[in-house]
Design goal:
This protein is an alpha+beta fold and 309 residues long. The protein contains 6 helices and 18 strands.
Length: 309
């Protein structure tokens, strides 16, 4: 994710920031301008002008009141939710504070996804615009019967509807599932990217024979038995195509990479990407003057250092 800059004081900004840490300006993401902007209130309640553009005037997505979104839309729009949030079909019971915390994490990952989708100009019809195959999200919880029987929610995609179990937003639970399934990585954004791949396939690839032919030449035949292909992949790895392969859950092969936590760069010990070892690597906090290396151990000591990105 790229860094942005406050238009008032030039402080570096992160995608999810809602206030500039230096000058205190309120911030909002403008999907049409593809930038995070400092904003000024106008004489009309709830209407803002953006320093990044002279027009139009903007209003916040309704989910901003729940601290779950920092995206904006034109003030004269009939929509109440932004280009990302309007695709929500089902959200958990937010009167439960645990659900609210998990849902905010889901929304952060989903907005990272929509940043990419909107920049790529991919088709993003809502369920209202296309009731059969419009893009929609159900964020659901496992249900427990009176006898204690648990009916789990399975993450998946069906005709534009993406279902995600909100338990995946719990770091400890997601790590347990990752370990149980023997996965090298399991991330919220990875789930969203994986499932959106099915949606994009249906919209852009599935019914176009010319594109299908090119796809199969590059990636293989999708008509193969999924179970057999999965077993072969886990047993033998990816086929030797001469091209690098990467799953939606795998971070890019860089030496230093921005972590999901603002201001942190997770570093690795070699140019070829490897899973970070917290006790040996720690994390680097970026600041205008220096970068402080925080050891993730029982020690609270810090030392100054530099990162290689």
């Amino acid at each position: 994710m790229k860094l942005f800059e406050c238009q008032n004081c030039h402080q570096p900004l992160y995608f999810e920031n809602t206030l500039c840490e230096r000058c205190g300006y309120r911030l909002g993401y403008l999907p049409d301008a593809r930038t995070l902007s400092a904003i000024d209130p106008t004489s009309d309640d709830g209407v803002w002008s953006a320093l990044a553009t002279t027009e139009p005037l903007y209003k916040f997505c309704a989910n901003a009141e729940l601290d779950a979104c920092n995206w904006m839309l034109p003030a004269d729009s009939a929509e109440t939710h932004c280009a990302a949030c309007r695709h929500n079909r089902t959200i958990p019971d937010l009167s439960d504070t645990a659900n609210l915390t998990l849902w905010r994490k889901l929304e952060l990952a989903k907005h990272h996804l929509f940043y990419t989708l909107t920049n790529l100009n991919l088709p993003l019809e809502t369920r209202t615009e296309n009731p059969e195959e419009g893009l929609a999200f159900d964020f659901l919880t496992d249900t427990v019967a009176p006898d204690g029987t648990v009916t789990p929610v399975l993450t998946g995609h069906a005709n534009g509807l993406i279902t995600i179990n909100i338990a995946e937003a719990d770091d400890a639970e997601r790590e347990r599932r990752r370990s149980d399934m023997g996965e090298p990585y399991r991330t919220l954004l990875g789930h969203f990217r994986h499932e959106i791949g099915h949606y994009v396939w249906d919209r852009l690839v599935r019914d176009d024979e010319a594109v299908l032919e090119r796809f199969r030449a590059l990636f293989g035949d999708e008509r193969e038995d999924y179970g057999e292909a999965l077993q072969r992949h886990y047993a033998n790895g990816a086929p030797p195509t001469g091209r690098p392969t990467m799953s939606a859950h795998t971070p890019p092969p860089t030496r230093g990479r921005i972590s999901p936590r603002p201001g942190l760069i997770t570093c690795t010990s070699s140019t070829r990407w490897k899973p970070p070892v917290p006790s040996a690597c720690g994390s680097v906090r970026a600041s205008p003057r220096a970068r402080t290396w925080n050891r993730r151990s029982t020690s609270t000591r810090t030392r100054r250092g530099t990162s290689t990105t």
